[in-house]
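Sequence in, structure out. Go.
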Amino acid sequence: MVKIDSQRRIYIPKEITFKGRKAIMIPFGTSFLLIPIPEKIIEVKVPVSKEKLKERAEKKAKQEAIAKIRKHGAAAGG
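Output:
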C-alpha cells in the first residue's frame, strides 16, 4: 500500500525496490502502472516524433504489463 498526501504526492514503501526519481504513470483499468524513468537518459536521433514514440512506448508497456499479469495469474492458478 502507498500513501498519498494532501498535495497528491505518492510515497512508495522502502520495502519496494524502485529506482529513479521520476516515473511514468499509465492508467490501467481501475489501477495505475508506474514505470521508473532512468536517471541517465541517452539521447538518440530518430525519424519519428516524440508524440509517436510516446504512443508506441505506452502501447508496448501496456502489452508487457498485461502479459506479466496474465503470466503471474496463471502461475497463481487464476
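Check: The helical segments are 50-75. The first strand starts at residue 3 and ends at 4.
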